[in-house]
Amino acid sequence: MQHFPIFLAVAGRRIVVAGGGETALAKLRLLLKTEAHVTVFAADPLPEVVRLAQAGRLTLIPRALDHGDALCAVIAYAAHDDAAEDARAAALARADGALVNIVDNLADSAFITPAIVDRDPVIVAIGTEGAAPVLARAIKTDLEERLPATLGVLARIGKGFRALAERLPHGRARRDFWSDFYFLAGPAAIETAGADAVQPALARLLDHHLAQEARQGQVLFVGAGPGDPDLLTLKARKALDLADVVIFDRLVSPQILELARREAVMIDAGKEGFGATVAQADINAMIVAQAQDGHLVVRLKSGDPTVFGRLDEEIGACDAAGLDWRIIPGITAASAAVAQIGQSLTRRDRNAAVRFLTGHDMRGFAEHDWKALARPGEVAAIYMGKRAARFIQGRLLMHGADPATPVTVVENAGRPDSRVLATTLALLEPALTKAAMTGPALTLFGLAPRAARDVLAAQDVTPILERQEALS
Ligand code: SAH
Known about the structure:
CATH superfamily of the largest domain: Tetrapyrrole methylase, C-terminal domain
CATH topology of the largest domain: Methyltransferase, Cobalt-precorrin-4 Transmethylase, Domain 2
Structural class: alpha/beta
Low-confidence stretches: 452-472
Number of helices: 17
Number of domains: 4
Largest sheet: 6 strands, mixed
Strand content: 15-25%
Distance between the termini: 67 Å
Strand order of the largest sheet: 13-16-19-17-18-20
Bound molecules: S-adenosyl-L-homocysteine
Helix content: 25-40%
Mean pLDDT: 89
CATH architecture of the largest domain: 2-Layer Sandwich
């Protein structure tokens, strides 16, 4: 780049033009768009130049430029169509301290004048370093067509509106607003009702965008895992960091709630098993209302939100309200429980499938394919199974399950106060009643802890094997 484009401050300052013929007149047409004081030195000016002087648009000195005539001028043009005269005037103006352009003489000019698309205050300057004036003109023509003639009016009105537009968040929201204004709403307002309609149109547009922005809430269905904050995913941590509102379940541990952004509004949507304390419909409505207020809503569910979490109902409510939502998975209780007893949920030659069952559903104790489950080697993770234990036990025995099938109940899996009850199907009840577990418990049917202690536990109805420190 041999020429660096800049916009020169010329308002109220002097610009000198030496010459009064066609070449000078062409430059004057451009220069008179500025707020500079233009002085023309010409012994024999065109009538058009004289008229401009008479109209007070410029000062005409009817002689050739001389020493001192370009003093205090920011720029000067030598525009005589006569190389010798141009060189003389240029030297004088340079001596007076002005930046000098000799029209059509790139080599001897201190600056060049670009092709200009004028939508004041939007000015586009096109330069080709003198190499391809035809190209510059073609680009100019193209831009003249593309930029609405009203752009200047819009930009001037828009400038006065900038402070108000700051009510929109910085970035995309504000860019969208201005783009809408300059290319759609603004030109439309001028076209239908003239420049006076622009200001009110701008105000309406801002209201519209503010309202739209307000509708941009989002819902994240986040898995909180079994309770240990270390078992949260990084995405869950980030979601908690960003949340405006956290709507959480009863089983989400206090240590995890601690991690939510300090300013976040925390809403307890705690539900007890059997009969909700907060009705599902109310939770759905709460999620939707918060997101519609423009908040980033984290719907925090214990374990994995896709496992016995009534997620589909909440997603349905979001969809019905046209809300943006996403799921961030978590570690489900079955994974935490099985890890704790050192087993795996599936094993070659034992079980190629594992069932996640619920002990009860909305109608009461839940029915399942007991016959299939009663076959040797089957494994099931039973959620919400404490109260249904006797029912499940009865159904499985009735369908021919081996009474010696190992059953392990893990209370507060993945938490420091976790307890493990290792027993058999035959002894499940009353062992469970005796253990008097009060925390959430997951029943692993068909699995015993991987250790000698399971033998002990299978006969010993004193159920509590140990008090485990999480992951110790
Ligand atoms: N979405 C959850 C399950 C919700 S249903 C998940 O993926 O884990 C609630 C049931 O999950 C409880 O009744 C209990 O059976 C089980 N549960 C949840 N957290 C548990 C925990 N820390 N330890 C043991 N069981 C748990």
